[in-house]
Specification:
The complex is a heterodimer. By secondary structure, chain A is an alpha+beta fold. In chain A, 32% of the residues lie in helices and 35% in strands. Chain B contains 8 helices and no strands. The longest helix of chain B has 23 residues, at 10-32. Classes of the chains: A alpha+beta, B mainly alpha.
């Protein structure tokens, strides 16, 4: 009991929060018990360790990335862009547009990904993508979108890896969920696709829209390359949709700002 | 400065980000133990704060607000990490960046590992106490807790950390 009490008093003392009565109580415990004195030594060591942990510098580009993506309040303009636009709704017209494009486009079912031998047991993205792209680590996180709904948890990260752009999507769902990745307005096309789990029911690609359906935990990486007709003059975006049984669960947009695009274009 | 940001002054925004990015990044890093995730979460925290800056009440301290958002985002990230754990390779395998080299000594790694093993609500009071040097009252303001609760959580956090440090061979019991 006195050890517990002593620890409580030592904790308060470390924060400069001892009353004079508590100080006297702690002094008495220390004078009477070698065990408490040992405890004090250990406590001080721990306190010292925590105080000596170094301050870390954030990545050099973090400030610029925040500034590039930040939007401050301004008088509402028709075309004013705000952070909330990241999650803006896709209109019925655009959904119909996608449907039409899908219907008229040449449908490519990438059955190869289902029937080919597994990519191997390693779930490491660097190893996985390294077979198709520079295995450089992440140079910059360009944008990120996360879903944390009941039954669906997912993180989509758009990353620059050396000279390449990789879309890394991790997803965990209870039900059968289709992830749709629309690259039409991105200026990119798919160069390669890799998966670390083989529990996909289907993978389809049609007119810049990649659809991957499955259940449970999945992860896939999409290596992107610049389309020939892309001049990267304006903002580019990738639209994501998560749906189940035809019902839209969540949607979002990953954006690539013109500054980043111009660097990639060099 | 915050008021100027609320009026759309991007120069003030740059100053604000410059002033707070490092302490927020450090607090988030100590919650997550991973540099890449800490950078992502710090970025997200700032963007969320700036998205809602017109709702910020200047009578409160900006650092309380940005720390609160940063820690909440870090805890959300930990929840997502748990759900996606079997296919997440990041936390322990984090490749040290140049700026983190200083933190790669064995002792600091073990302290960080021990921190990662204590409960999240206890870890956040330790992070605020040691890595942002907040007072009980400031921690209480950030976490919306009474000062007495902050004090008792710090006590419990230190107890748990001491146990974990012993497991990691830092302390002799």
């Amino acid at each position: 009991m006195s050890v517990e009490r002593a620890f409580e008093l030592l904790s308060a003392a470390a924060d400069g929060d001892l009353t004079s009565a508590e100080r006297a109580e702690l002094d008495k415990l220390l004078s009477e018990s070698a065990e408490i004195r040992k405890l004090q030594g250990e406590f001080n060591d721990m306190d010292d360790l925590l105080n000596r942990l170094p301050d870390l510098n954030p990545p050099a580009g973090l400030h610029d990335q925040i500034m590039q993506q930040a939007s401050l309040p301004r008088p509402k303009a028709e075309d004013a862009w705000s952070i909330s636009d990241w999650f803006h709704s896709i209109t019925l017209r655009s959904i119909l547009g996608h449907a039409a494009a899908t219907a008229f486009g040449a449908l490519l079912v990438i059955v190869a990904y289902e029937s080919r031998p597994n990519f191997g047991p390693s779930p490491d993205l660097d190893d996985l993508v390294g077979t198709m792209a520079p295995s450089a680590g992440v140079t910059a996180m360009l944008d990120r979108f996360s879903v944390d709904e009941t039954g669906v948890s997912s993180i989509a990260r758009l990353e620059q890896r050396g000279d390449s752009v990789v879309l890394d999507i991790r997803i965990d769902t209870k039900q059968l969920v289709e992830v749709s990745v629309d690259l039409a307005a991105s200026g990119f096309e798919i160069e390669a696709l890799a998966q670390t789990q083989s529990n996909f029911e289907s993978i389809q690609l049609a007119d810049h829209v990649l659809k991957i359906k499955g259940r449970g935990q999945r992860r896939f990486a999409v290596l992107l390359r610049k389309r020939d007709d892309t001049d990267f003059a304006g903002e580019a975006k990738i639209s994501l949709e998560y749906s189940s049984n035809g019902i839209l669960l969540q949607q979002g947009t990953l954006r690539l700002n013109p500054v980043t695009l111009s660097l990639l274009d060099e | 400065m915050v008021t100027e940001c609320q009026q759309g002054n991007r120069q003030a925004l740059g100053t604000l980000v410059n002033e707070y990015q490092k302490p927020v990044y450090n607090a988030v890093y100590r919650m997550l133990g991973n540099a890449d995730e800490a950078a992502d979460v710090t970025q997200t925290a700032f963007l969320k704060a700036l998205e809602n800056i017109d709702r910020f009440d200047p009578k409160f301290r900006f650092f309380s607000w940005i720390y609160r958002i940063g820690l909440n985002e870090a805890i959300d990230e930990l929840k997502r990490r748990k759900r996606l754990e079997p296919m997440t390779e990041t936390p322990a395998a984090d490749t040290p960046r140049p700026q983190d080299q200083v933190a790669t000594s064995q002792a600091t790694d073990q302290v960080q590992a021990a921190l990662m093993e204590i409960k999240e609500d206890l870890r956040e009071v330790l992070v605020l106490r040691y890595f942002t040097e907040c007072s009980y009252h400031q921690i209480g303001e950030i976490l919306e807790l009474p000062d007495k609760t902050v004090k008792s959580r710090l006590f419990s956090a230190r107890q748990q950390l001491k146990t974990q440090l012993e497991h990691h061979g830092i302390h002799s019991a």
